[in-house]
Amino acid sequence: MTLRTPVQTRSKLPDVGTTIFTVIGQLSAEHNAINLSQGAPNFSCDAGLIAGVTRAMQEGHNQYAAMTGLRTLKERIADKIATLYGTRYDVDREVLITASASEGLYSAISGLVHPGDEVIYFEPSFDSYAPIVRLQGATPVAIKLTVPDFKVNWDEVSAAITPRTRMIIVNSPHNPSGQVFSKEDLAHLARLTSNTDIVILSDEVYEHVVFDGEPHHGMATHPELAQRSVIISSFGKTYHVTGWRVGYCVAPYELMEEICKVHQFLMFSADTPMQYAFAEHMNDPQTWLSLAPFYQRKRDLLQTLLAESPFRLLPSAGSFFLLADYSHFSDESDSELVKRLIVEYGVATIPLSAFYTDGTDNKLIRLSFAKDEATLRAGAQALCRVKPR
Asked: In the chain, which ranges are E strands?
């Protein structure tokens, strides 16, 4: 029996309901579909991490951590960023451990964006950006990346900037397209934001998953952009433990001060035992330096396995994802095709239209290669059987 309330509700997100992600999840469970949809690994993390968490618990590290996080872990992060990207953050004032990258995104947007502000972001996009902006009484301004290369049209960005623009959200490596920012992109962004009060919120959760020997061009690699950027990253994505929900945020002190005001009332602190384990694990730089070749092998395997499929694969320069084009063999909407793949072929993918607020359909689906080899082979085998319609 469902309880009924006499309370009249007034939704802050009246257009948010059941999404295609929910539909796909339910269909996938019903048909026991092979999961190439979710951007979460289905293989185990390093056993040393689990041992580290267990040891931390047994040693009594089970109460609240400091609000901004375990200092040893923050030191490891600051050292890593300085070594890789050349920017040194103050451990005590400019590094924050968050209860997931998602919490970092929320705290940053909530702390720095005000009612009446405008926030530029790029579609297709991670689905939380626009709703978080709207919850602040601000206006999300979507700019579509060009298709099929998924690049930023910086002339469009220039035209979209107004006196109300408070923030620009960027994401590289990019979910869902797998594309990455270049040095030229950073130069354009620096030019457009120079001498403004615009904050850059940079979602860099796949920072260590950049392929083909290319470097990660994050905001910390550009001194001018680093001065106005909030950078978000994820231990879950880096160490194959997305369910542990621990991330981090770095930013200049004046920005971080406002982010911490939200964080302290939203979460106060991230999980303590996990922080001890991550601090210990980060003693070895190979724990992140090995990620790019590790995932590149998975990308290459899936590309090879799908060579005889009817799909045309778009290049993937980073992240856990690649896109597959089916426009040459079907007129189905991407949502219809994804449902058919589950029901008729037993494999789950994601329609790219789910990453657009207006449901733009470019006849592309997203595949995740953050899976073990058996799953990739089974999923590719199913996709190779797909018949045109």
From this structure: 34-35, 95-98, 118-123, 139-144, 165-171, 199-203, 229-234, 247-250, 312-313, 321-325, 347-348, 350-351, 364-368
